[in-house]
């Protein structure tokens, strides 16, 4: 029975997506719920699972093509078994020498004696096959780095670049420069109709100067759009302070092992800052509010966005009702977000909403920065690297682990006084952790 493979139904806020990968090739066996393809939107990556056991029989949409909700992108035969791994027995041909490609993907070379000698044809993905044809390459000369030796588009690009750089014309200035080959880039720019290309390196004299043009992913383009929107629509101002982390470091060192044993999760610094932020948001409701047209929308809850890095860019999943969470709940939530950001399995619902955000550039070594507000929110807290510095305590110069913190805020809604006091409230709680328990 033939089953159509369709794009998942997108939420109303998502209009289309880009097919970024096929996890299977035509003729491969698939199992129920196994991921067949991945579709990237401007917010999340949707997985396309198999709804039955069977064989992927037809791919109708290639990688990098634009797709819409419910669109058919391929077909599968339910209950069948893949035939691609079967190599046919040698047969006899009446004709002279000729080459025949069987349906099983095997090259059969007929010799003069009439015996057909079978050799396995290299397996190419749809994108790689297109690149091979465009560059007039012999698939047998390519080395595949994919699963089971499958030839990927990246392998074709590497082969073209290697051939260009090692050709006689590239190394001989008298022979002129070698004309670069063009290979389709891994992603299609959805805002441009012409095909994007990656140029092979061109040798000039004894120096190699390589350039590569790669279109933005949907997620990266969306990030760029929202950051630009934030700077163009809000009156952003940033205020700074510094926090002595000594008390938190000592408290964490004292109870770290007991905490992990009791809750099966490590005790980090972020849970302290989330707790301190929740308390500060309760005291300064303007920071937790947003502008909606000519109105101010005040939120009676604290949903905190936690910025985490992913292979496709920065994402901000939301800790819902952070005011109701204890330290262990917060740490589990952050660890879960970080792990699923790496695999692209965060859901659209988990990355929408949020009344305030926290970003920690310190994990990458940032000493100081001015974070950009995540619209429609009105403020964002930036954490930074902990660094030992000389400070004055009781008229004595001492060395303490210090952290710069920054609050970027929309000055249309939040006054400078409120922003400064908000940051001081966080500083006071972190430097005296007992305040986190007493709410003072």
Strand-helix topology:
Layout: E1 2-6, E2 16-22, E3 29-30, E4 35-40, E5 45-49, E6 54-59, E7 66-68, E8 72-78, E9 98-101, E10 106-110, E11 116-120, H1 126-134, H2 153-166, H3 168-171, E12 182-184, E13 197-199, E14 202-204, E15 207-209, H4 218-233, E16 236-244, H5 246-263, H6 270-283, E17 290-292, E18 295-297, E19 304-306, E20 308-310, E21 313-315, E22 318-319, H7 327-343, E23 356-360, E24 379-383, E25 387-393, E26 396-410, H8 416-431, H9 434-438
Parallel strand pairs: 19-23, 23-24
Antiparallel strand pairs: 1-8, 2-4, 2-7, 3-6, 4-5, 6-8, 9-10, 10-11, 12-13, 14-15, 16-26, 17-18, 19-22, 20-21, 24-26, 25-26
Helix pairs in contact: 1-2, 6-7, 6-8
What does this structure look like?
The chain has helices at 126-134, 153-166, 168-171, 218-233, 246-263, 270-283, 327-343, 416-431, 434-438; strands spanning 2-6, 16-22, 29-30, 35-40, 45-49, 54-59, 66-68, 72-78, 98-101, 106-110, 116-120, 182-184, 197-199, 202-204, 207-209, 236-244, 290-292, 295-297, 304-306, 308-310, 313-315, 318-319, 356-360, 379-383, 387-393, 396-410. By secondary structure, it is α+β, with helices and mostly antiparallel strands. It folds into three domains: 2-78, OB fold (Dihydrolipoamide Acetyltransferase, E2P) (Beta Barrel); 126-209, no CATH class; 219-438, 2-Layer Sandwich (Chloramphenicol Acetyltransferase). The strands form eight sheets. Strands 16, 19, 22, 23, 24, 25 and 26 form a seven-stranded mixed β-sheet that branches. Strands 1-8-6-3 form a four-stranded antiparallel β-sheet, with no helix packed on it. Strand 25 (387-393) and strand 26 (396-410) form a beta hairpin. It is elongated and about 75 Å long.
């Amino acid at each position: 029975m033939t089953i159509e493979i369709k794009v998942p139904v997108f939420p109303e806020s998502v209009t289309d997506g880009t097919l970024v990968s096929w996890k299977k090739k035509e003729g491969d066996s698939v199992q129920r719920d196994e991921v067949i393809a991945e579709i990237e939107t401007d917010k999340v990556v949707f997985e396309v699972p198999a709804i039955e056991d069977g064989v992927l029989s037809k791919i109708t949409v290639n990688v990098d093509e634009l797709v819409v909700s419910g669109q058919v992108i391929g077909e599968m035969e339910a209950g069948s078994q893949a035939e691609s791994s079967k190599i046919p027995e040698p047969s006899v041909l009446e004709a002279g020498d000729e080459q025949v490609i069987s349906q099983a993907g095997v090259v059969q070379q007929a010799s003069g004696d009439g015996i057909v000698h079978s050799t396995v044809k290299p397996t190419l993905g749809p994108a790689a096959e297109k690149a091979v044809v465009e560059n007039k390459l012999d698939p047998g000369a390519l080395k595949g780095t994919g699963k089971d030796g499958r030839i990927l588009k990246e392998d074709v690009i590497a082969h073209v670049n290697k051939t260009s750089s090692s050709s006689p014309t590239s190394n001989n200035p008298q022979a002129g420069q070698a004309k670069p080959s063009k290979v389709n880039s891994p992603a299609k720019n959805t805002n441009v109709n012409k095909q994007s290309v990656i140029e092979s390196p061109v040798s000039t004299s004894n120096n190699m100067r390589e350039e590569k043009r790669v279109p933005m992913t949907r997620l990266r383009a969306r990030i760029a759009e929202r950051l630009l929107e934030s700077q163009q629509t809000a009156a952003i101002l940033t205020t700074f302070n510094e926090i002595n982390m000594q008390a938190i470091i000592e408290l964490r060192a004292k109870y770290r092992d007991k905490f992990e044993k009791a809750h099966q999760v490590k005790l980090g610094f972020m849970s302290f800052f989330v707790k301190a932020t929740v308390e500060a948001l309760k005291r300064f409701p303007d920071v937790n509010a947003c502008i909606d047209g000519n109105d101010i929308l005040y939120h009676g809850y604290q949903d905190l966005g936690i910025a985490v890095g992913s292979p496709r860019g920065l994402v901000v999943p939301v800790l819902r009702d952070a005011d109701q969470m204890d330290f262990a709940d917060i740490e589990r939530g952050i660890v879960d977000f970080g792990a699923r950001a790496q695999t692209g399995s965060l859901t659209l619902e988990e990355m929408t909403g949020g009344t305030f955000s926290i970003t920690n550039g310190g994990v990458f070594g940032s000493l100081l920065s001015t974070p950009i507000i995540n619209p429609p929110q009105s403020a964002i807290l930036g954490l930074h690297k902990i660094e030992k510095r000389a400070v004055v305590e009781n008229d004595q110069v001492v060395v303490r682990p210090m952290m710069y913190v920054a609050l970027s805020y929309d000055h249309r809604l939040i006054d400078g006084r409120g922003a400064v006091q908000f940051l001081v409230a966080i500083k006071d709680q972190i430097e005296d952790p007992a305040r986190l328990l007493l709410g003072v």
